[in-house]
């Protein structure tokens, strides 16, 4: 046996002997979508000072973080949020061993220029901030929630609980407040994860997530947009928008070859 063959044999034997529990489990597409949908745009209150950092601030699944590293980042780039400031998750990224949450637009994000403007009524008068009562954080940053064995398929509430030592999500979220203001029939469709006529694009995204494909067409001067969900073999859902609202929802079934048939009638 040559040295190269021996090395290859040893590598194969080592891989075969690796227990399944030690291998990183990769999330399925729908699991990734559920996590991103459950965390994106959520608000939280900083429980500890959060520094601006070019690299995501690391937090373990047990809620531990390296205070010295965070303090060093704060000394170099300044604060992203003080304890008590409100932050918002502006982007969610899922890597093999970490969940990255961009807060307030990330390192280059933060308050808008007009949040710092003050106005007065003539020379020597007292100035007043235009945006009074603003408790949002002065800057943006990112947090990486670490999972050495791979990001687990958990609901958003579980990830929020892991972050509880640094972020407080207990106040009602933006999604919850938005849902409460919707008509009951639209709330039902979103909770049941189905599209329905009359929903707008944001509501369909809450119900079904991002579509696999989008198709636009114009017939007789009327422009429509069709969102397509699902993969063969299985159910394929076509959601048609005319203007800003859903005007048609059609479910079909696609077999292994991609051929589409009408769904079977209910028994």
Mean pLDDT across the residues is 81
Order of helices and strands: HHEEEHEEEEEEHEHHHEEEEE
Beta-strand residue fraction: 25-35%
Low-confidence stretches: 5-22, 112-123, 125-135
Helix content: 10-25%
Structural class: alpha+beta
Please tell me about this protein's structure.
- The protein has 267 residues and is of the alpha+beta class.
- The protein folds into 2 domains: 24-172, no CATH class; 182-261, Beta-lactamase Inhibitory Protein, Chain:B, domain 1 (2-Layer Sandwich).
- Helix content is 25%, strand content 28%.
- The protein has helices spanning 3-16, 29-39, 67-77, 156-162, 174-180, 184-191, 201-208, and strands at 43-46, 50-51, 57-60, 79-81, 86-94, 98-103, 118-119, 128-129, 141-146, 167-168, 213-219, 222-229, 234-242, 245-254, 260-261.
- The strands form 4 sheets. The chain has a 6-stranded mixed β-sheet.
- The longest helix is centred in the first third of the chain and has 14 residues, at 3-16.
- The chain is elongated, with a radius of gyration of 24 Å.
- The termini are far apart.
- Residues 5-22, 112-123 and 125-135 have low confidence and may be disordered.
């Amino acid at each position: 046996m040559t040295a190269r063959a021996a090395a290859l044999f040893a590598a194969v034997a080592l891989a075969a002997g690796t227990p399944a529990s030690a291998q990183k489990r990769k999330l399925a597409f729908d699991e990734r979508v559920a996590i991103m949908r459950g965390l994106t745009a959520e608000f939280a209150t900083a429980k500890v000072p959060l520094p601006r950092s070019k690299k995501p601030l690391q937090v373990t699944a047990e809620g531990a973080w390296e205070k010295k590293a965070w303090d060093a980042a704060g000394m170099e780039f300044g604060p992203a949020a003080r304890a008590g400031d409100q932050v918002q998750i502006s982007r969610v990224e899922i890597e093999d061993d970490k969940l990255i949450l961009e807060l307030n637009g990330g390192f280059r994000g933060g308050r808008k220029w007009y949040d710092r403007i003050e106005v007065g009524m003539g020379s020597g008068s007292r100035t007043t901030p235009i945006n009074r009562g603003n408790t949002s954080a002065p800057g943006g940053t990112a947090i990486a929630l670490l999972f050495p064995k791979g990001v687990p398929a958990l609901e958003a509430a579980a990830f929020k609980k892991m972050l509880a030592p640094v972020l407080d999500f207990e106040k009602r979220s933006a999604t919850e407040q938005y849902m409460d203001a919707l008509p009951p029939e639209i709330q039902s469709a979103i909770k049941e994860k189905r599209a329905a006529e009359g929903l707008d694009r944001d509501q369909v995204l809450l119900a079904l997530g991002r579509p696999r494909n989008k198709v636009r067409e114009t017939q007789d001067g009327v422009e429509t947009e069709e969102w397509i969900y699902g993969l063969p073999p299985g159910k394929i859902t076509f959601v048609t928008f005319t203007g800003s609202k859903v005007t048609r929802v059609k479910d079909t079934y696609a077999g292994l070859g991609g051929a589409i048939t009408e769904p079977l009638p209910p028994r």
